[in-house]
Design goal:
50s Ribosomal Protein L5, Chain: A; five-stranded antiparallel beta sheet; 19% strand; globular
Length: 176
């Protein structure tokens, strides 16, 4: 539903605003990656809870991420589980972004808008949320430990200005 709205309404408006010649030049959302790290790696229930909550929030089964190298300062050994992540594409990505913009972000206490400085130079945007209770699918009883998450929106935009225009057109509440 959101993807069709993008193709019929948002893409032609972006084409006009960015002064592009072809509809194929309009930046699009390629994927959204939601990543949750775990604080206490010794307690397996925290990892199980993070995986279950991430599955509820996104509608997809997360994969468990493991440490690539051993780092003694962090008491981390190679192959140890350190978090979980989900990659959303196509309709799932558009539906998740719609829910993030219209339900989750307005529900955050003292929310004044997102920083426009979090672009990476290639049109991709990353934001962090302090806890998973902002999502309506997660209840207080389901949370074993309050954890934050990183949400990375990967676009086909070539510049930060194009990425900003795309996300602004999709309803992202940036600070003015």
């Amino acid at each position: 539903m959101q993807r069709e709205r993008f193709q019929t309404e948002t893409a032609p408006a972006l084409m006009k605003d960015l002064e592009l010649r072809s509809i194929m030049q309009v930046p699009r959302i390629e994927k959204i990656v939601v990543n949750m790290g775990i604080k206490d790696k010794d307690n397996p229930k925290i990892l199980e809870g993070a995986v279950a909550n991430l599955a509820r929030m996104t509608g997809q089964k997360p994969i468990v991420t493991k440490a690539r190298k051993s780092i003694s300062d962090f008491k981390l050994t190679q192959g140890e589980p350190i978090g979980c992540k989900v990659t959303l594409r196509r309709n799932h990505a558009h539906e998740f972004l719609y829910k993030l913009v219209n339900v989750v972000l307005p529900g955050i206490r003292d929310f004044r808008g997102l920083s426009a400085g979090a672009f990476d130079g290639r049109g991709n945007y990353t934001l962090g949320l302090g806890e998973q209770l902002s999502f309506p699918e997660v209840s207080y009883d389901d949370v074993t430990s309050s954890q934050g998450m990183d949400i990375t929106i990967v676009t086909s935009a070539r510049t930060d200005q194009e990425g900003y225009a795309l996300l602004k057109a999709l309803g992202m509440p940036f600070k003015e």
